[in-house]
Each structure stands twice: as structure tokens, then as C-alpha cells.
Amino acid sequence: MRELTGSDEGVDVAFEAAGNERALDAGIRSLKVRGTLLNVSVWSRPPKVDMNELVFKERQLLGSSCYFGDHPAVMEALRTIDLGAFITGVIPLEQLVEMGFEELLHNNEAHVKILVSPSGDMSL
User: How far is residue 87's CA from residue 123's CA, in Å, rounded to a whole number?
Assistant: First the structure.
């Protein structure tokens, strides 16, 4: 995020929406002093949180489960980001349970987003 923003200070606000410990850690570290991370994901197990990253830089970690009118602004903001780097797998529809749900339940630290291909085309 520092490279994208051109600032070593970090960002004011970050969002964690993957329920993934690596994403949570990266989001916290991307914040500037007194920045805020908003967690909007549902977790399959309790994450480890480096509390010193919050305390020493006076960062805030908040949670929310409500959305109201947020999607248009988020979709517009996503147009400025190369989302390909977030895709950690492409699977056929027939393997949704084994390679999708089961993989995310038992190995979600290795994934951000897994795409499901109804046609079986595994290319992006």
C-alpha cells in the first residue's frame, strides 16, 4: 500500500474482507499511525493479532457486519486496483466442495480468492 500511495506513512483506513490472517496482518501493517482497520469478514477460527502493531502506533481495529449503499463506491474504487494478484486459485464447478469450500476451511491462510469456473475454463 505504501508503494501504491507513494507514502511511507501508510493509509488512513484499510479493510479486511477475506477472513484470512495474512490479509489481517497486511491490513494492520498498511495503516499509518492512528489509522483504522475495519474487519468485515466472517472468520472460521480466531486469528492471531500482533497487538503491538496496534498499541505502539495507536491503530484501531473495528468490526462491522452491515452494508448499506457501500457497494457502488467500493466497485468504483476497485477499478483502480489490479485484482489479479488476489486470485489464488481457479477451480472447476465440479470441484467446488473439495477444492473450494474445503480448501478455504482448512487452508485459508494460503488463499485470498478462489474463482469458480462453471465452464471448466481454468484460464483467467
Answer: 12
* Helical spans, DSSP H, in the chain: 2-5, 21-30, 51-55, 71-78, 102-107
pLDDT in tens, 42-64: 888 899 999 999 999 999 999 98
pTM: 0.56
Type of residue at 30 = S
Q: Give the whole-angstrom CA distance, residue 57 versus residue 52.
A: 8
User: Per the structure block, which three cell numbers stand in for 49?
Assistant: 493479532
Residues sharing a CB contact under 8 Å with residue 115, sequence separation 6 or more, in sequence order? 87, 89, 90, 91, 124
Q: Which residues of 76-115 are buried (b: 16+ CB within 10 A; e: fewer)?
A: eeeeeeeeeeeeebebeeeeeeebbeebbeeebeebbebe
Q: Torsions phi, psi of 12, nearest 5?
A: -70, -40
